[in-house]
Design goal:
The chain has 341 residues and is of the alpha/beta class. 30% of the residues lie in helices and 23% in strands. The protein has two domains: 144 residues, Rossmann fold (3-Layer(aba) Sandwich), CATH 3.40.50; 184 residues, Dihydrodipicolinate Reductase, domain 2.
């Protein structure tokens, strides 16, 4: 016996990936519904490689009663309006927006890192999916924290335009094409030209000079991993279509050599260690697209601080950073609580 699953925001980048991953991982489904905004009602989206298509239901009129799980990938506005309605109807919501992440009554879950946190879902019948850049970071940090206790993390991100949705991907493509033919590269989605450029600005600026994306990484890492860890982030948008990269500097309480860290990461769940000290002995965003893993490379000791390590971390932000993590949460929910399939 399987589940009745609704994917809300099924026509977007993340919603489509959710449908793909549910099929790829053979999630036990008795019935699947694609749900989207009124303007997408009736549009068809693919489900799996069998050629099966689903017609989109209108979110405004969709009845969540009798559905087991709703994967929301529709943004904070629809999540605010419809996630509580779905939850009240008995459907467990796994939400990809930022709306519920810091709600103390909503667990923020990365299954490889804090699976026990999911047990708190019954307070609101909602589970939050973390920010894409946070998800891959905590997967890489968790085994090192268990081994030697992380005290401080400084991270610089190199985030792909797909993190800004289809409009961001279209803008990179159009600007790149325009530059090659001598046309102006006018920014619309981003604050400055993104083609052949980098922009140290994601989301809105806060009073302390940080951006909201940087704030998310700080508070979400603390909630998921350990509130005692000090985190400082600089988030940068780069001209890459898919795949987020991070340069991570870590200060540990206890001594841990680079070799020991490599051995720990090599065996850790969700991580693929590719770390050869030679040309090409590391992973870049292009190589991680379509993969489930969080890739770690360039593990080395930092001699400028006591018990310091640095590493390079890459992941497909549409997968582990969003859709895959949501499906993994659904799998964990099924194993621990819903008991079907």
């Amino acid at each position: 016996m399987g589940y009745r699953v609704a994917v809300v925001g099924a026509t977007g980048n993340v919603g489509r990936e959710m449908l793909n991953i549910l099929a790829e991982r053979a999630f036990p489904i008795d019935e699947i519904a694609a749900v989207a905004s009124a303007r997408s009602t009736g549009l068809e989206v693919e489900f799996g490689e069998s050629g099966r298509t689903l017609k989109c239901h209108n979110l405004e009129h969709f009845d969540f009663a009798g559905w087991d799980i709703a994967l929301f990938a529709a943004g904070s506005g629809p999540a605010k309006d419809y996630a509580p309605k779905a939850a009240a109807a008995g459907c467990v919501v796994i939400d990809n927006s930022s709306l519920y992440r810091m709600d103390p009554d909503v667990p923020l879950v990365v299954p490889e890192v804090n699976p026990d946190a999911i047990d708190g879902y019954t307070r609101k019948n909602i589970i939050a999916n973390p920010n894409c850049s946070t998800a891959q970071l905590v997967v890489a940090l968790k085994p090192l924290h268990d081994a030697a206790t992380i005290e401080r993390v400084v991270v610089a991100t190199y985030q792909s335009v797909s993190g800004a949705g289809k409009d961001g991907m279209d803008e990179l493509f159009e600007q790149s094409r325009n530059i090659f033919v001598g046309d102006p590269a006018v920014p619309r989605k981003f604050t400055k030209q993104i083609a052949f450029n980098v922009i140290p600005h994601i989301d809105v600026f806060l009073d302390d000079g940080s951006t909201k994306e940087e704030w998310k990484m700080v508070v979400e890492t603390k909630k998921i991993l350990d509130p005692r860890i000090k985190v400082h982030a600089t988030c940068v948008r780069v001209p890459v279509f898919v795949g987020h990269s991070e340069a991570v500097n870590i200060q540990l309480r206890d001594e841990l050599s680079a070799e020991a860290a490599q051995n720990i990461l090599r065996e850790a769940p969700g991580i693929m260690l590719i770390d050869k000290r030679e040309d090409g002995g590391y992973v870049t965003p292009v190589e991680c697209v379509g993969d489930y893993a969080t890739f770690v490379s360039r593990v080395r000791e930092d001699p400028t601080i006591e018990n310091g390590l640095s590493l390079w971390c890459v992941s497909d932000n549409l997968r582990k950073g969003a859709a895959l993590n949501a499906v993994q949460i659904a799998e964990l929910l099924g194993r621990r609580h819903l008991k079907k399939g």
